[in-house]
Design a protein that fits this description.
This protein has eleven helices and 24 strands. By secondary structure, it is α/β, with parallel strands linked by helices. The strands form eight sheets. Strands 5-2-1-9-20 form a five-stranded parallel beta sheet, with helices on one face. A hairpin with a 4-residue loop joins β7 and β8. The longest helix has 20 residues. Bound molecules: flavin-adenine dinucleotide.
């Protein structure tokens, strides 16, 4: 029997690795099995478009059959166990897939940081179902509200997903003249925290132009059925002890202006590892559950590799690769080649993430920052929009073909 290679996950990391491995391996050298929870790849970094226009899902959900080669097997299932002794992955439905080499690329889950009520009451955006659910909730809230008593949609977390989701909700509101107030809440001092003030300012300006309220510098401490309570310390999230547990309620003085009523709450404030990954026989960070991987993507088990949001991929100087689509896409090209090298017993390649810049949408507008090969540091307008569309379309063209990319262009 030829060497069995298994890739788990159909995101940027998994789909990209499948393509790259198929290109790197010679016929007969190995058999590839691709396992994922859904039988489509979701272009997650454009999933927020579905909030405004549910019909965009046909552009951002791409069947695996259109991605993989004919002789790559696909198994639909959620992997709940990786057994490194038996070299087998097991799915929730009881299916077993043997491997000689395994790549884990199951992405990440939303982090709730132990904040009281947040998990129970907030919507999240990690899947197509999530995007459909946010659309439904926003639409219904708008339908039930009036101009004198508008609905309030709160988006918690002003990173890539929070900003872009708020932008789409604002477009929805304007397209449908829906009486909705949109409030973006970020605990740190600025939107798009820990980034260049120039791009933060550009994003802030576009959000305010789209009539999105911005509240920075106060962390969410508690959530109930109707309201979000601000006033938590940063330690509540990141933890003096590293646990990220929220402070006791009695420690917080909830003055009136720190309570925000909501009709729809969307939480995008952080990522963590999937719970199942704890059951995988590889070393992971205790706090986040993300798997430790070297720059070759090897984990604590030399038959198991990990990339994308699932992994903390070493980049030297105590740095790890960022949890972005851009990083997963780049890593996947090398990971596929490394799986082929592992099959042949050849030395593995080391990968270094290269930041090619930031492209971020605020509804119909886009902002480009520090984009490789572009002399202007930060800009919006048609140029930024074309670059943003170009990146999503290039990814779609890379994994399927130009036809799908052209078809998706208008909605990216
Ligand atoms: C709204 C939004 C906007 C974003 N915008 C940007 C952006 O502009 N630029 C950028 O670079 N990044 C952006 N990101 C981040 C980016 O989408 C992620 O970093 C990227 O998706 C990570 O890729 P991945 O392949 O590791 O994981 P994912 O894309 O999440 O894929 C994980 C895959 O694994 C599958 N899976 C999960 N668990 C299991 C399991 N147990 N068994 C089997 N299969 C499983 C999932 O179904 C999925 O197919 C955005 C994210 C969001 C949510």
């Amino acid at each position: 029997m030829s060497t069995q290679v298994v890739v788990v996950g159909a995101g940027y990391a998994g789909a990209g690795t499948v393509k790259s491995f198929e290109n790197a391996i010679e016929p007969g050298e190995a058999e590839l099995t691709w396992v994922s929870e859904h039988d489509y790849h979701l272009v997650l970094h454009e999933a927020h478009r579905v909030i405004r226009k549910p019909e965009v899902e046909s552009k951002v959900a791409i069947p695996v059959e259109e991605i993989k080669a004919d002789d790559t097997d696909f198994v639909k299932g959620r992997v709940t166990e990786v057994d490194t002794d038996e070299r087998v992955v097991r799915t929730r439905d009881g299916e077993e897939v043997d491997y000689d080499y395994l790549l884990v690329a199951v992405g990440s889950a939303t982090a709730f940081f132990g904040i009281d009520g947040l998990r129970e009451h907030a919507l999240t955006l990690k899947s197509l179902d999530d995007a459909r659910e946010i659309h439904r909730a926003v639409r219904e809230a708008g339908e039930e509200a009036t101009t004198t008593d508008p609905a309030t949609v709160i988006v918690g977390g002003a990173g890539l997903s929070g900003i872009q989701s708020a932008g789409e909700i604002a477009e929805f509101r304007d397209d449908h003249k829906a009486p909705i107030d949109i409030e973006l809440v970020e605990g740190l001092d600025s939107v798009f925290p820990n980034n260049d003030p120039e791009v933060q300012g550009a994003i802030r300006k576009r959000l305010l132009e789209k009539d999105v309220g911005i509240h920075t510098g106060e962390f969410i401490s508690k959530v109930d059925e109707h309201a979000v309570y601000l006033g938590g310390a940063e330690e509540a999230y990141y933890g003096e002890d590293g646990n990220g547990s929220a402070p006791e309620e009695e420690e917080i003085d909830f003055s009136d202006d720190l309570v925000m009523d909501y009709d729809v709450l969307l939480w995008t404030g952080g990522i963590t590892g999937h719970e199942e990954v704890e059951e995988f026989d590889v070393d992971a960070d205790d706090r986040t559950g993300r798997v430790y991987a070297e720059s070759t993507f090897e984990t604590s088990d030399d038959r198991v590799f990990a990339i994308g949001d699932t992994a903390l991929v070493e980049q030297g100087d105590d740095e790890v690769a960022p949890p972005t689509a851009q990083a997963a896409w780049q890593a996947a090209e090398v990971a596929g080649e490394n799986l082929a090298r592992a099959v042949r017993g050849a030395p593995l390649k080391s990968w270094q993430h290269e930041d090619k810049g930031t492209l971020i949408s605020v509804g119909e507008e886009a902002i480009a920052h520090d984009v490789q090969g572009v002399p202007i540091n930060t800009f919006g307008g048609p140029g930024a929009k074309v670059l943003k569309k170009g990146v999503a379309s290039r990814w779609i063209a890379d994994i399927t073909g130009i036809g799908r990319a052209v078809n998706a262009w208008s909605d990216m």
